[in-house]
Specification:
Layout: H1 4-30, H2 40-46, H3 53-66, H4 71-83, H5 85-97, H6 103-110, H7 115-147, H8 157-179, H9 190-218, H10 222-231, H11 241-257, H12 259-267, H13 274-291, H14 293-303, H15 313-320, H16 324-365, H17 376-402, H18 408-419, H19 423-431, H20 437-459, H21 468-473, E1 481-482, E2 485-486, H22 494-516, H23 521-531, H24 550-561, H25 563-576, H26 588-602, H27 604-615, H28 622-697, H29 703-734, E3 743-746, H30 747-758, E4 768-771, E5 779-782, H31 784-801, E6 808-815, E7 819-826, H32 849-852, H33 858-869, E8 872-875, E9 883-889, H34 891-903
Parallel strand pairs: 4-6
Antiparallel strand pairs: 1-2, 3-5, 6-7, 7-9, 8-9
The structure holds adenosine-5'-diphosphate.
The site of adenosine-5'-diphosphate has 22 residues, from helix 31 and helix 33.
Amino acid sequence: MVSFNILIAVCFAYVAFLFGIAFYADRRAQQGRLKFLHSPLIYTLSLSIYCTAWTFYGAVGNAARSGLEFVTIYLGPSLVMVGWWWLLRRLVRIGRAQRITSIADLISSRFGKSNLLGVLVTLLAVVGTTPYIALQLQSVTLSFSVFSRDLSAGFMQTDLASTAFWVAVGLMLFTVLFGTRNLDANERHHGVVTAIAFEAIVKLIALLSVGAFVVWSIADGPADILARMDASPIANWQIRPGRWAGLIFLSAAAFLCLPRMFQVMVVESADERNLAMAGWAFPLYLMLMSLFVLPIAVVGLELLPKGSNPDLFVLTLPLSQGQDGLALLSFLGGFSSATSMVIVAAIALSTMVSNHIVMPVWVSLRSSGATVSGDLRQVVLTARRVSIMVVVGLGYLYYRISGGGAALASIGLISFVGVSQVLPVLLGGLFWRRATKVAAAAGLITGFAIWLYTLFLPSIGGAGVLSESVMQQGLFGVGILRPQGLFGTGGLDPVVHAIFWSMFLNSFVFFAVSLFTFPTPLERLQGVQFVNVFEHSPGPRGWTSGAAGAEDLLVMSQRILGAQQAQKLFEAEARAQGKLGHLPDSSPAFLERLERELAGSVGSATAHAMIGQIAEGASVSVQDLMAVADEAAQIMEYSSQLEAKSAELGRTAQQLSEANEKLTRLSVQKDAFLSQISHELRTPMTSIRAFSEILRDMDALTPKDQTRYATIIHDETLRLTRLLDDLLDLSVLENGQVTLNREQVNLHDILNRAIGAALAPQDDEPIRIERNITFESAMLVTDGDRLSQVFINLISNARKYCSAPDPALTISVQTGHDQLQIDFVDNGAGIPAHQQPLVFEKFARLTDHARAGGAGLGLAICREIMNNLGGAIDCLPDQSGAAFRVTVPLQVETQEKANETRIS
Ligand code: ADP
């Protein structure tokens, strides 16, 4: 029997040897001799940290309990390696391009460098990994206890605890020493990786040796083993398809999401070509690791006393046969499995904890100077070291609290389900540009909560977190909320149940929220870089010529600059290059110019990335680029629509304020008119009353005086009647109740009639009328009387208001396409521009009314008449005197045309 002291000595020697390897590898790396360290062999072997003590010891235990089921845990990763290596390649490429340091960093980076997501994934990883670390401590401790059975004093529970403690301290020390020796920008740890590659060989040899011993030494070769298998209880084992599918999926998902796997697969990866070898070599490694699991289980069950722990068969079987050396090797295999897992997991988790939790808190506490101070590196290193101690410490704590009782395999599975919650967000982030940060956080939280409730908390049920009644009757007594029978799905295997609901709800929430939220510009940019990682390479500043297709560039530029501007740019360049046609060579100078041009529209970073994608010759990405360009164009379109809208609003506001001003002026005018009209009614009324009293009361009036007074009364009543007539006429016209008497009339005749009526022959201040009769011969179908009323008004206005010493009125006629324009322009002072809109209003009087005597209704009536006739009357601006234009539709022509068409 190996004595306990020898065991301890071997352990120390082994660890010292590992130190040596790690130290040597670090030295080599420092000297720049990286060829061997970056080789595919080291890479493949480092992946073997997937096989922890759980698989080393637990696989045999699992086989003893559930037959071939242990294979599922190897099948998942093998399928990923063989079938999904393109996904791994994508991950590795992104990891290098974006300098990703952990899976939390990957998720946070993909969604616009969100620290919230970083913290979430970190917490998830810590909670999911802590039981797993505890599991490693437990298995190392158990394996120690196997060797100490014969110790005289017995190996008590306290010794177990203290063994676990010292193992934890040793691992902490190793990890701190080699995991935080220096701060590599790429987070590579050559020493550690080389050491775990060595451990991978040790555990493989150990397991193969025990297996070979069992098959060829205890049994009589493979045939005998097969016979023993048939005889053993394992033969009765039954396959459970649901559980198999669930476990294969789960191990594949965990393989991608476990922080330690991400660390060796992506972060420590030097060259994505290493995946080519890992693609077949790692499944082979897993196959070898599982080769003898079943034989060992079968023989163990057969030879060892009933009730011995099958999780320890790998150790106890050689011991029972007196093979101390083999047992020691086996012990080292298990020890290697446990230590390599804890070391890498602690490094991966400490990177996350320090980058996403400790550093942000530290920086925010030290409000100033954090980014420039020279001691930042030291702070980061300290944060890493503390984080490592915390992570391993948590594992130890979990081990002590949980009591180390449960079968190894179940803790491992629980961990896997928790960590796999990152999978939907990871895949969505890698392949779906539309995925958003909020959705990622929502999905993660949902999955995490379901995992806690359906698997993690029930697993530590003994600690009384979930009471028996919750387990049986559901939360708050609601049956569909039973932790292991959500929504009535009781009867499922608890692990499969948890996988299904957590993954389903997690993905669903992630997908649905993505559809209802919008990515920020930074998320968008990162999304493009992740989804199109193969087409995207940052590249040095400055372009090399040749690769870019001018046509692709033109298509893209058109989307951003608009077709015309882009074509002009390209044509100008083609001319400058002396080329025929409209496509220039994509010379570096032109690319730079184009980039500047595009940067004006989409910002320099995007412009650079866009040109980069086309210029680097990646024709595949053009479509994606177009999508980005379309988005930008949509945004620009939208903003130009907004601009148009705001311009329109501005115009409306302007019109409103103009209308308001006009209203104010009108109201002032109306007030003035009211006093005016009362005055105007009053004056004639007063004189009518006065003169009629005189006529009534005074008897001694001469007949001549009587006639004179009666005439005054008569004139005044005429004036009153005229005023009332005008008001009446206006209201009839305004209400549209007027009956128009349309007939065929000659413009010339109407003008003659109007002039005759407006200018009385005995007029003492005659106005000269200038006309050109040749243009007046047009025929119109209209109400001749109404039209001449308008003309009379305009002509008499000119006579009344034209103040020139030699007053003259020019009447000119122009025949347009379907209308006639008759202009009345006099040579007086005219109407000031700001008054022009007012003169057509009722009661508008600009000049001294005493002189004119009008009530200011003339032009208002004119406007109403012209509206009724289907024409218009306007002030002509910028003329020497007052100028009015009357527009009459040429209804004659249209009617004739109508007749013609009817006849033909
Ligand atoms: P009224 O019936 O009192 O003549 P109008 O409506 O015809 O009033 O004219 C309104 C105002 O427009 C007049 O008071 C006058 O000040 C101005 N106006 C009209 N025609 C002329 C013109 N030819 N020259 C100068 N002012 C004019």
